Amino acid sequence: MKTQESDQSLVDDICAKHGFEASLLIEILHDLQDNVGFIPDHLLSNLAKALNVTRAEIHGVVSFYEDFKTQKPSKLQIKICRGEACQSVGANFLLESANALANGKNVDIEPVYCLGNCALAPAVEIDGTMVGRANRMTIASKILTGKFEGQSE
Questions:
Q1: Assigned fold of 4-64
Q2: pLDDT (tens digit, 9 = 90+) per residue, 60-115?
Q3: What is the SS3 assignment for the chain?
Q4: What is the pLDDT of residues 18-56, one digit of tens each?
Q5: CB atoms near residue 14 (< 10 Å)
Q6: CATH fold label, 76-145
Q7: What is the value of pTM for the model shown?
Q8: In the chain, which residues fall in CATH 1.10.10?
């Protein structure tokens, strides 16, 4: 079980990599999230202490940017683009299908408004891997089997 001292040590180590510069807060938060998997609320005070800023300033940044997660993520992360190009080729149906498939499973489905892959719409990101021309089977195979359709072991 982690202690307050080990939490502060983790935060200090990450901040040290960035010279304890409050101006590098976003990079520090990314490193913290990469290390822990999300940004736990109880670490905001540790971070504020290390950077000599208020907890409110840190909370403001964490809550503003969607990529910062404040809760432990599910085992599988799926982002589905809802931009116009993706909507025009079935992203809304894809989102509905994904939500139905993920019901009761350890999966986070997150609609996003651009993944920057419009030429290969509909675009999805599955556990950090961009997938173009995604379809229901692409998502279903990952949710149900843990592999992409056609992916070898």
A1: Arc Repressor Mutant, subunit A (1.10.10)
A2: 999 999 889 999 988 899 999 999 999 999 999 999 999 999 988 899 999 999 99
A3: CCCHHHHHHHHHHHHHHCCCCHHHHHHHHHHHHHHHCCCCCCHHHHHHHHHCCCHHHHHHHHHHCCCCCCCCCCCEEEEEECCHHHHCCCHHHHHHHHHHHHCCCCEEEEEECCCCCHHHCCCEEECCEEECCCCHHHHHHHHHHCCCCCCCC
A4: 999 999 999 999 999 999 999 999 999 999 999 999 999
A5: 21
A6: Glutaredoxin (3.40.30)
A7: 0.70
A8: 4-64
C-alpha distances in Å from residue 12, one per residue of 28, 33, 43, 97, 141: 10, 14, 11, 43, 41
Contact 87, 120 (CB under 8 A): no
Structure tokens at 18: 């960035």
Q: Which of 31, 41, 90 is nearest to 62 (CA)?
A: 41
Exposed e or buried b per residue across 26-65, where buried means at least 16 C-beta atoms within 10 angstroms of its C-beta: eebbbbbbeebeebbeebbbbbbebbeeeeeebbebbeee
